[in-house]
Amino acid sequence: MTGEAHVKIGFIPLVDAAALLIAAHKGFAKAEGLDVELIREASWANIRDKLAIGRFDAAHLLAPMAVASTLGLGHVRVPLVAPMNLAMNGNAIAVSTALYAELAAEGEVAHPAQTARALAKLVARRRAEGREPLTFGMTFPFSMHNYQLRYWMAEGGVDPDEDLRLIVLPPPYMVENLTRGQLDGFCVGAPWSSVAVDAGVGVILHFGCEIFACAPEKVLALRESFANDNPDLVAALIRALDRGAAFVDAPQNLGEVSQILSRPEYVGVDAEIIGRVLTGHLRVKARDERSDANYLIIGRDGAMRPDPQQTEWIYAQMLRWGQTRHSPEMADRAKSVLRPDLYDAAIDRAHVQREIGAFAGPSFDDRSYEAYLADFAIGQRL
Amino acid sequence: MKIVIVDESPIRSLILEEGLREAGFTQVERISEMHNLLKHIYASDPDVILIDLENPSRDTLEQMFQVSRAVRRPIAMFVDQSDTASIQASVDAGVSAYIVDGLKKERIKSILDLCVSRFHAFSKLRDELEQAKSDLEERKTIERAKGILMKAKQLSEEDAYKMMRGVAMRENKKIIEIARSVITAAEMFK
């Protein structure tokens, strides 16, 4: 490329934007000839709209939202491409201390299968007692948070559309609503569940990776037309973000990365909490900690290379929860969102095959959507 | 036609409401409380919802597009692709509109145009207010520095000011910067 290319990139203040934020902050983007302007946004809807009308060239986006936009679900159809994953996993399901006590009274609450069954029993008990249905929060209809919550509770026999309320709330409001008793639980990205635990109002029940071992969480999204018109810029951006991810992943940089991300213009929460999130070492209850190296994966083990099977699986979740109707064309379109070819044009590295790895339920690999969905007791079928 | 304005800034939503009323839209309701937002919206059952883009609760509204038993009437975002200019103008001004499906687009466009001009008017007002505030702060700082110099060097008010102005010109700086240095230095000598 000649000269420096100005690139406007929108992001939501979350730890899983780390590769992007660090690439810009540490000058990795500049080294690739990119003058990156980061714009912090207040909502996913803003990100989607500004990407759609060209106010952003690229964005940190919920992986299912890139699919929804390309399929035209819930909004005008704007074909997007995702040449790179920005994060796998990173969410957690947290419940109020009151709900935790009620769940624990129903039985063991260690494995997701156990908590889901306990939730089902509790839902039935509450209904028999004439109590209000439980309310769970998540961040967007087209989000892994939504699919994680639904998948988990449905395995226990809870129908998320019939047996309780699922509402969309901005992550910063989750903790407040939990405190006020207007929310019984939620699934959000880091650091918000940690904030609830630290505030003494919530208990982390499960890390997202306990529900799905490796779920595509955020992607780098661009308009398909923009990506087609600017292949060199896209490649430069991928290389810069790859360097950003490598910097984030290097253990010796943990302190520096946490400090940078904690700045008010980036994530704006305590560096110590960010450090815990990045290492997957979280306080889950007052005096209880849990560690999982897979809690949040930024660039490790080739995680950034997008795998089209990820979007086929996301599309299957959309079908299961009635967010779209099936057609072979829609399925192909969904699959075309993730673009490993763009990634490979920028980065030459051995591929790592990965599975979604749900904690229970049918496997997805190489099966028809119809066969996959027919194996669930709860949810739509084809 | 019933219009709901969702905005945490009471002044901005008031400005917008006023504009809408002047344009003949008499049924306008303002919501500044984000708790139970959907409940409030369903209760007032509007034809149009206007929301500022600084509001994180915008994602909560997106839920209305999902098929849900709670929704009585289908609501969509105003995304008439034949009119990208007015969409861009509204996003740039910082406002977005959600409408009940089937509403005439000319009417929506006039509302949206009104939002854009009122949001711009509010931004201008806010900028002017910020400017006035910072002017006032600067004047206070210069007064303080002047006082310090008058006391330390037994100068008249006018000479103290001249002294700072002279240094500012020599060092090619603004007088406010010199005043700040004077205050910092004075604090260190305390």
Please name the defining characteristics of this protein.
heterodimer; A: 382 residues; D-Maltodextrin-Binding Protein, domain 2; 6-stranded mixed β-sheet; 5-stranded mixed β-sheet; globular; B: 190 residues; Arc Repressor Mutant, subunit A; 2 domains
Q: Briefly note the CATH topology name of the largest domain in chain B.
A: D-Maltodextrin-Binding Protein, domain 2
Structural domains of chain A: how many: 2
Q: Strands across the major sheet of chain B, in which order?
A: 2-1-3-5-4
Q: Which word captures the global form of chain A?
A: globular
> Helix count of chain B?
7
**Helix fraction of chain B by DSSP (H/I, runs of at least 4):** 55-70%
- Indicate the CATH class of the largest domain in chain A: Alpha Beta
**How are the strands ordered across the major sheet of chain A?**
2-1-3-10-4-13
Q: Give the averaged pLDDT of chain B, no decimals.
A: 86
Which percent range fits the helix content of chain A? 40-55%
Termini separation of chain A: 48 Å
| Number of helical regions of chain A | 18
Query: Architecture of the largest domain in chain A, according to CATH?
Result: 3-Layer(aba) Sandwich
Query: Oligomeric form of this entry?
Result: heterodimer
| Low-confidence regions of chain A | none
According to DSSP, the number of beta strands of chain A is 13
Name the CATH architecture of the largest domain in chain B. 3-Layer(aba) Sandwich
